[in-house]
Structure formats: C-alpha cells, structure tokens
Amino acid sequence: MASPALDSKLPPFALLDEPLLSFSPSSPEQVDVHPLRGLVNFGPFSKGSFGAYTPSVRIATVGPESAFRRRGELMASLRNSYRPSDRAEYVPPYPGFEPLFRVKLEAASRDAHIKWPDSLSELPGDGNPNAKLFRAMDAALRRLDNVRNDFDVVLVHFPDSWASATRAKLFDAHDALKALGAKYNIPTQVLNDRAFSFNHTASLAWRLAIALYVKAAGTPWKLAPLKGVPADTAYIGLAYALRGDKRDAHYVTCCSQVFDMDGGGMQFVAFEARDPVADVAEARRNPFLSRDDMRAVLARSLELYQCRNGGDLPKRLVIHKTTAFKPGEIEGAFDALAGVPEIECVEVGAASCWRGIWLIETGLPKPPTKPSGFPVPRGTVVVRSGNSALVWVAGNAPQVSSKGDYYQGKKSIPKPLQLIRHAGSGPLELTAHEALALTKMDWNNDALYDPVPVSIRYSQRLARTIANVPDLPGNVYPYRLFM
After folding, report:
1. Which of 119, 223, 245, 359 is found 20 to 30 A from 34 (Cα to Cα)?
2. Considering the entire predicted model, what is its pTM?
3. Minimum mean pLDDT among 28-32, 373-377, 400-404, 459-463: which range?
4. Does domain 227-482 have CATH number 3.40.50.300?
C-alpha cells in the first residue's frame, strides 16, 4: 500500500533547452538563443534578400504639425549607436540601423509627410472627435496611397493631448488605423509622446528599429529546427471575438496563418462565423465554433499553407487556442484536415493557479535546500497526465545574460502555461517545447519571449482589431499590417 506522502507527490519535472533562433537561411552556424545578440553578430535573417527588394527603409510621417521636426529627429536618432541604460545584462549596445540591418534608414520624399492641425477641433468635417480623427486617418492613408512607391512604413503620431479621441467606448484609434492600413496595404507604426522623452535610448532604438524593419517586410530571425519535431510540422493559432449586442451577438474569428516549423508565415485569415450564437453567456465564458465554421476557417488556413509550400500539405499540424476544444470543433478540424496525417488540438491556458519555487542546496544538513533568488528556469515542464502539462515560459534564462541569471520583468513569481491536448498523441514535452519556441517569435518588441506563443498572441491581437472594426473585409492579410 502506497504511503500518503507518495500519493501526493508531483511527477518529476524536465528542463527544456532554450530554443535557438536562426539568422541565416543558408548557414546553420548563424544561430543564437538571444534575439538581439544574434542580430548584432549575424545580421537579420533576410539580409541576403532584403537589399535587393529595397536598398533603404523609407519612413513617411503623419501627425500634428508642431511635432513634425521632433518626429524627424526621432527617426534620424535610430541611425546612431547607444549603450544600454536599462536591462544591461540583457540588452547589447545598439549599433545603429544600417550596421544592424545592412540597409539605410531614410526619410521618405516630401509628398509622403502629412501634417495635421495641432488641435482636434481644427480637423476638417463634422461630428465628434472620434469621427473626425477617423476621417483624418483615412484621408491621410488615401493620400499616401497615391505616392506608395515613395515610402515603406508610415509613422503616425497621436499626441497625448488627443487621448479623449484616440480611445473611447466604441472606438480605438490604434485598431482603426491598423484596419485602414490593411485596406490600403500600408504598414503603420503608432507613436505617442512618451517616445520623445523615454530615457532609455538604446531600448527605444532596439524596439523601434526592429518594428520598422519588420513592417518594411524584413525578417529579423526565425526558429532554428527543434530536436524531435517531425519534418513538415506547422502551427495554427485561433482566437475568437464576440461582437454585436446581446440580442444579435455573433462571432468573428481570426485565424493566424499556418506557421511553418521556423515560425514563418505571417499572414492570417479574417473569418466571420456563419452560425449564430445560441447562448451568449456561455460564449463569453468559453468561445467556440460550430463544426461547419471550424471546418471552413481551417480549410482556408490550410489553403494558405499550400499556396506557400507549392501545394504540399503539412505532415503534422498543431492547433492552438486559449479555450477548450468542443467535440464539434475537433470534428470540424478533422473534416478540414483529412489529408494531414497527424493533428494535435492544444488548449494553451495562461491563467494557471500553479506556482513553482526553485530550491538550491545550502551545503548544510538542515535545511538542505533554500529558495533561490531567481525563479524556476524557463523551460521547466511538469507532465501532469497523459494529456496535460505545465510549462514555464517565464523564468530564469541565464543563457541570455552577460552576468549570469536573468529574469525578464523581474517581478512576481511566474506562473506556467497549462497545456491540455484535446486531440493527438506523442510526448507532451515536445508539445511544450514547441510552445516555448513560439514565445520567441513576436517581432513587435525586443524581449526574449512573449508570455504566450505567437500563435496565440497574434490571433488574439487580430481578433480584437477585427471585432472593433466591423467593416474590415474577411480577406487574407499580412500580419505586419497589424503590428
């Protein structure tokens, strides 16, 4: 008979290797676990092809006239080098845009700079400030569309004094701008006043430079092959948004394009569900699609993958979403993916109640261990059952630090992601390692990782945007338009 102590004992944990990032499509030696260090040492993944596409990244600007010069000075400052003044153990010196990305950063031609009045009340047209600002953004992008060959990215400045117009109960200027950018196929970078006074110039330069390079269609890094991941594996991220009032509520779902094994494939499907929502309260608690809607959205996503891969199907497909898969959703997935040999449906939960403390030896008989000054290592995995595992994507990552230990954010005890596999088979450690790797593929910041895999983060961001902008057509879009 087992003792009570053994009955309550947790399964043993495993430590996953920190996933490598690749900075070259042809040289397997150009890899690093650190995204910024890899950029400094090897340059971006697309360095061999980007220069042929455009020899420079040209920035157009939109914003109040009084800040026109400040916007230009900020962009020009990205050409300079800076030493880090925060997170010095993680952030390397910023070398300047051209040494980093191997292309120049330049101001666009004169016609690609639009100056708004300094006061919201001076914007043309009638209506409330939200409506006037939306029309001003639409007019600016329509005008820039006429000189589209003269620029690559548009910097749009919303001053703090316009806060009453940039966000309201039924209006978000950021989301509206991104939707307009999708309409005109123009990538935008939103700027607020904080950028002009932010003290940590190296960190600001890193973040802005990476974002501008990606929005100009550059690729800073991709994932290096993960040991044990079968060839021709791909990933899909699903997120649902409910829009409409309670009397006529329906879903719009955003599906990130099938991500390749290397994290590439930055397009997504904007899909509006056809079947009505029967129980709005249940839908808000646990969003799900009907079998027919799941079949339709995954069929479109698979078509995108085939277009990108010469008509070939993936050999294995992993679907991520943040809520449980209903039986109808699983059936719809298998309907749409009948030609894919292996399918996994994985629930990725970020609201786990679990916590973990890393114990280190004291060298004394009593107590033999004590809590470390840093959290559990990033990549710690505890398999709870045959279909459930915990993985700490936030945690200590000494491999990226110049001083030893490194905990991103440096606050609170990190909680793990809870992975629940509703369909599929194979080692859960592999499923966890894939989720861990995909946390490193958010190109919209300079951090080591995002709290959730990019398959989840991108689809959530896009679903929110689409829900806030009801007239956005259900087309296929490159993700860089929504960053």
Report:
1. 359
2. 0.91
3. 459-463
4. no
